[in-house]
Structures are given as structure tokens and as C-alpha cells.
Amino acid sequence: MADSLDGSRAALDEVRSELRAFMDEQRIFCGFLDTEQRSYQELMRQEVNALSRLLDSTLRTDGSLRLVGLSGFAGRAASLALSRTPSPQAFRAVPPMPSPLGS
């Protein structure tokens, strides 16, 4: 009985040791993933800021809103944004709908 108990304790200690080693490895791996994610988010933030500045300066310098100097993603994004911008006629007053009851 004592041998069985000692064997169980030794097996339990071995499993604990392996589990701790695994947890340490996972902690390191998660640290790498967090660092990678923060780096990627910062890179995307910088890219979006650069594209926004480029778009702003292009729209500011070109009164007719032509996108001659833009290419790639910025040009497509700007074209899409402008194509979705309502025309000035869309903001004019719309006459009220006639009542279906006739009054």
C-alpha cells in the first residue's frame, strides 16, 4: 500500500512538473503573440494615418476633387468615398407626400 501511494505521489509530481513547464511555454508564446498583435496594430494605425494625410492633402490642393495623384489603395478608397457622397441635389427640400386620405 505504501509503495502504491509513493508511486502515485511520484506520478503526480511528474505531471505537475510537466504542467508547469507547459504553462511557462504557453506564457512565453502568448507574450510573443501579444507583441506581434500590438506591432501589427501600430503598423496599421501608421498606415491609415499616412493614407488619411495623403487623401486630405490631395483633396485640399485639388478643388475639383480629382484624384489624379492617388494610386493603389488610397485612390480606390478615395474614389469609393467620393462615389458614395450624395450630390448637392440630394439635399434639396423634398415636397411632402400627399395624404392617402385626401385631406
From TrEMBL:
Domain of life, per lineage: Eukaryota
Protein name per UniProt: Uncharacterized protein
Organism field: Polarella glacialis
Biological classification of the source: Eukaryota, Sar, Alveolata, Dinophyceae, Suessiales
